[in-house]
């Protein structure tokens, strides 16, 4: 009886590309995680997302700057300036240079954007930015004997739109007999990315493109004067299942924010 059932029951189909299935499965599992550092790191991608900027500007002449890093040794420098009471410019430079047992990754990327900001009732701030960026990417892959098996090189280009929303909490963090004001908010970014001038082992290869959605949350606490501690946590989701340009890294950054204008708190 068992032999008959085994004979008529269709045999399981094995995937011809188990690595691709594994990456897809891990991408789906990331939906179950709320925080970036707890999420699963996907299969290697030639793009590592810079943290979306959230200056929370409120008036002309205000300057915002931050330096941040994460567990992947990715460093980001960001700045923004209020040109008028509603118009701002912002920029980001992100760098990732790390060596693992099976690969070395080198990614440098820069962005620039123009934004509109306004203050809403109840101590809220709304910002909208549009911009673009570009950079270079390289991955050197090695086998167990530490011999180079493949070298991938290319350039990256991006256009994006982003919306930031933040509000001052009513209660501050009370620690060491001091109150530390808290600001929390969210940012939603939609990006169109391209991998150009792509080569594998020095030979030209087809480029790729993808659309990424990056929802993040951030929390800031004022340490002293214009200095704040910031935590960014979120995810990146890709609309295309590419081999090289894919959503493979969560967004998680810890950094220091400096605001040089004394009149920039959301309490004003």
Structural write-up:
The chain has 268 residues and is mainly beta. The protein contains two helices and 14 strands. A hairpin with a 2-residue loop joins β9 (182-200) and β10. The relative contact order is 0.19.
How many structural domains can be distinguished in the coordinates?
1
Overall pLDDT = 82
Sheet with the most strands? 10 strands, antiparallel, barrel
Number of strands: 14
Fill in the CATH topology: Lipocalin
| Helix content estimate | under 10%
- The succession of helices and strands, N to C, reads HHEEEEEEEEEEEEEE
- For the termini, the CA-CA separation is 80 Å
- Share of residues in strands: over 45%
Which structural class do the helices and strands define? mainly beta
What is the tally of helical segments? 2
Instruction: Indicate the overall shape.
Output: elongated
From the 3D coordinates, which CATH architecture would you assign? Beta Barrel
**What is Rg?**
22 Å
Poorly predicted segments: 1-42
* Spatial order of the strands forming the largest sheet: 1-2-3-4-5-6-9-11-12-14
CATH C-level label: Mainly Beta
Question: Topology of this protein?
Answer:
Blueprint: H1 2-8, H2 18-29, E1 63-69, E2 74-82, E3 87-99, E4 103-120, E5 124-142, E6 148-168, E7 173-175, E8 178-180, E9 182-200, E10 203-204, E11 208-224, E12 227-234, E13 237-238, E14 251-259
Antiparallel strand pairs: 1-2, 1-14, 2-3, 3-4, 4-5, 5-6, 6-9, 7-8, 9-10, 9-11, 11-12, 11-13, 12-14
Summarize the structure.
By secondary structure, the protein is mainly β.
């Amino acid at each position: 009886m068992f032999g008959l059932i085994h004979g008529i029951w269709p045999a399981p189909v094995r995937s011809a590309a188990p690595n691709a299935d594994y990456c897809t499965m891990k991408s789906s599992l990331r939906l179950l995680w709320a925080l970036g550092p707890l999420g699963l790191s996907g299969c290697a991608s030639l793009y590592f997302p810079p943290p979306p900027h959230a200056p929370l500007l409120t008036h002309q002449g205000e300057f915002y700057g931050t330096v941040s890093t994460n567990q992947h040794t990715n460093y980001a420098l960001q700045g923004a300036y209020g040109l008028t009471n509603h118009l701002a410019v912002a920029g980001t430079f992100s760098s990732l240079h790390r060596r693992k047992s099976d690969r070395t990754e080198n990614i440098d990327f820069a962005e620039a954007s123009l934004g509109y900001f306004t203050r809403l009732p109840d101590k809220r701030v709304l910002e909208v930015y549009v911009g673009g960026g570009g950079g270079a990417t390289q991955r050197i892959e090695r086998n167990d004997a530490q011999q180079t098996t493949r070298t991938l090189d290319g350039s990256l280009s991006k256009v994006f739109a982003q919306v930031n929303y933040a509000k001052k909490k009513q209660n501050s963090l009370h620690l060491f007999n001091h109150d530390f004001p808290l600001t929390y908010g969210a940012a939603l970014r939609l990006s169109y990315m391209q991998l150009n001038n792509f080569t594998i082992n020095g030979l030209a290869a087809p480029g790729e493109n993808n659309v990424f959605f990056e929802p993040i949350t951030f929390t800031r606490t004022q340490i002293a004067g214009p200095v704040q501690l910031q935590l960014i946590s979120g995810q990146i989701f890709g609309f295309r299942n590419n081999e090289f340009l894919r959503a493979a890294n969560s967004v998680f950054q810890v950094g220091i924010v400096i605001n040089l204008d004394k009149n920039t708190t959301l309490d004003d």
